[in-house]
Structure formats: structure tokens, C-alpha cells
Amino acid sequence: MVTEIKDPIEIRHYLHQHPELSDKEFETTKFITNYLQKLGYKIVTPKDLNTGVIAEIGNGNGPVIGLRSDIDALPIQEKTGLQYSSISNGVMHACGHDFHMASLLGAAAKISNQKDSIKGTIRLVFQPAEETHVGAQEVKEAGGVDNLDAIIGFHNKPDYGVGEVGITAGGLMAAVDQFTVSFQGVGTHAAMPNLGNDPIVALTTTVNTLQTIVSRNENPQQTAVLSVTHVQGGATWNVIPESAWFEGTLRTFTHEARATAKKRFFEIVNGEAAAFGLEAEINWQEGPDVVNNDSNLTKVVEEESAKFLRVIKPVPSNAGEDFAYFSQRIPSVFVFFGSHGNTDWHHDDLVLDDAGLKYAIEWYYRIGFKLLEYLRK
Ligand SMILES: [Zn+2]
Ligand SMILES: [Zn+2]
Fold first, then answer.
1. Domain coverage including residue 153
2. What are phi and psi of 277, to 5 degrees?
3. Looking at the 3D structure of the chain, how many domains does it have?
């Protein structure tokens, strides 16, 4: 029976072999639930949550600390050649969420051995659908993080060595916005542009002008990235199409930079459209906010971590992380944990080092107890 697996490395290999896509983590949810029930955890997963597990342990008297792991995998065909490669075609734990789950389950076992000394509550938050950036919101809306006094989490970092942890107060991972723009012109013969209204010229001018948001409108001391990544328009060489379309993403680290970029984006797109006398339609989707670490809690986490890990100052990542939906509401700390990989996140040949697990287990365990003690004061 798979739920008899106890060794965290074996747990990770089992989960790696059985990856599931965002919001479809049904077997993963069962596995985690069974495992935690056997350890004596109270399963408190809200009914509205289809996947994911929330579980608690403690005397219910005192602060409530959340320890978070994500649980979903990616639509990637694994090419690692590992003996424990994914058996699910086209699905792979290529972001290392199997590493996160095995760490938190390993910590769960250690915590349950000390359950009589928990003065307060430790709540494990195994959230679904991080990759699609909806899981944290689902958990939040279902009430899974209600009444938490603090929450911590980590993402494995393949370019950090085993036993290394990256900790910083403030912004660690970027706010993510996503946009699409379509220009509606008038199609015509390529040789008679005067008889139509060319959306491709309007699009290319707009794409170039958008680059001035970062170079001319944002504070040069702050980081912002705006990338147009996908352009479509037309079908052949001698016809001017009636419409053209592009999409892309914005990454920022402050509310100010985010608001500035969005405002200028609308002004530029609508302004260029007006200049060319055609219609533009903008679809703007706000993704997760910046992952923002509470400065007081970060100090506590850093001091405790330095007792058994090599603490390094991380370079903030322009990638997004939906832990931000928790960190916007609950004092929190999110860190990068060394997993000594051969390549970066989301690669089909990503292999992580199991030797990093024991440190991550220790981190969840020690920081969980440390924060309970800190918040009781
Ligand atoms: Zn990912
Ligand atoms: Zn990830």
C-alpha cells in the first residue's frame, strides 16, 4: 500500500512518478490525506476545495501557524530518464512541487512526534493549482487560511546548493500581469493599402512604443519587465489583414510600478490605435501580486535558519508565485531552498537532489515551532 511509504525520499519518488495537473490532483490529495490521518492530524479541508489538503495538529490554544506546499505538476513530457520518471504521459513534476510535498510530509511526521509540545496550532496547507495561479485563491476563498497568524512556504531553487536557503524581507517574487491586444482594421490588397486600414503597422508601432514604459516611465531604481511574446496577423504575402493581435506579460515588484505600467499601457495602445484610426481591444488580467515577506517574521526565520543552513541573499525572481495571495493577507515568509538541480524550473530534464530534502524538512519543523514561540510572546 503506497500510504505505507514513510521515507521522505521514497515519498518524493512516488509523487514524482504520479504527477497530476493543476486542479486535478485527486490521487495526490488522497495520498496526502491518508498519510496525515495516520499521523494523527485532523483533516480540515474545506468542502469547497476539490483538491488540496488542509490539516491541523496542536492544542488549539495559542497562535496558528501555516506551513504551505503546492502539489500540482506541469503539462510537460518528462525526459530525465530517471528510474522514478513520471508514468503519466505528458505530465511532469518539472517545478519540484514533489520536493515541496515530500518536505512538508516529512516535517509533518517530525511535528506529530512532538505534538504534546505544540502550544498553539500548526496547520498544513497543501494547495492545488499553483502553476495556473488560481490555487491559493481557491484555498483562501474556501476558508483554508482563515485565522492564520502567520504562514511560511518555500520554492526549491535548483541553482542553490544543498543546505542553502535564500531569505530576504520585502519582495521576493514579482507581481504578474497578462495582456492581449487586438487591432481591428480594414483588410485590402497589399498593393492598395489606401483602400483599407492596416492593423499590422499599428501593431508593430505599438509593440515598439510599449518598450518605453520600462525605459521612460518606470523608476530606473526599480525592476520592471514588459515582454510581448506572441504576435499574430495575416495569412499570406499579398493581403493586408483586417485584424492583428498580440499578447505578453508585465512583471513588477511594487504597487507603484505596477500601476504606472498598466496606466501607460492603456494610454499607448489606445493612443496608437487612435493615431492610426482603428479600434483596439485590450484584455488585461491581473495575476498574483508580489510575494512580500514580513520584515519582523523574516528576521526570526533568518536567525533560526542560520543555525543549521547557509543563508544567502537571494536575487528576487521575475517569476510569479501565487503564495502572494496569502502574503497579501497574512504576515508571511517565503524563501528559496537549495535543491541542487541540473537545470532550471519547467525543463523536461530537471533532476533535483534528494539530499536537499532533509534540510527542507528540518526548516518547516524548526521554523513552525519557532514562530509559535515568537507569536506567543
Ligand atoms: Zn512552476
Ligand atoms: Zn513551482
1. 2-173+290-376
2. 70, 35
3. 2
Span from the CA of 95 to the centroid of ligand 2 (angstroms): 5
Same domain, 75 and 195: no
Q: How far apart are CA 209 and CA 304, in angstroms?
A: 48
pTM of the model: 0.91
Q: Which grid coordinates are listed for 24?
A: 486535478
Residues 154 and 25 in one domain: yes
Give residue 358 CA to ligand 2 midpoint distance, Å: 19
Indicate if 224 and 298 belong to the same structural domain: no
Tell me, in angstroms, the distance from the centre of ligand 2 to residue 96's CA: 6
Q: Which of 14, 21, 275 is nearest to 134 (CA)?
A: 21
* CATH assignment of the domain containing 210: 3.30.70.360
- The answer to whether the beta carbons of residues 37 and 44 sit under 8 Å apart is no
Among 242, 263, 286, where does a domain finish? Answer: 286
Kindly identify the ligand whose nearest atom is closest to the C-alpha of 96.
2
93 Cα–ligand 2 center, Å: 9
User: 339 C-alpha vs ligand 2 centroid, how far in Å?
Assistant: 12
pLDDT of the chain, 377 residues: tens digit per residue: 465 778 999 999 999 999 999 999 999 999 999 999 999 999 999 999 999 999 999 998 999 999 999 999 999 999 999 999 999 999 999 999 999 999 999 999 999 999 999 999 999 999 999 999 999 999 999 999 999 999 999 999 999 999 999 999 999 999 999 999 999 999 999 999 999 999 999 999 999 999 999 999 999 998 899 999 999 999 999 999 999 999 999 999 999 999 999 999 999 999 999 999 999 999 999 999 999 999 999 999 999 999 999 999 999 999 999 999 999 999 999 999 999 999 999 999 999 999 999 999 999 999 999 999 999 98
Question: In terms of domains, do 195 and 259 share one?
Answer: yes
Ligand 1 centroid to Cα of residue 73, in Å, is 8
Closest CA to 336 of 95, 64, 19, 52: 95
Closest CA to 372 of 81, 139, 115, 23: 115
Shared domain for 163 and 181, answered yes or no, is no
Query: What separation in Å is there between the alpha carbon of 7 and the centre of ligand 1?
Result: 25
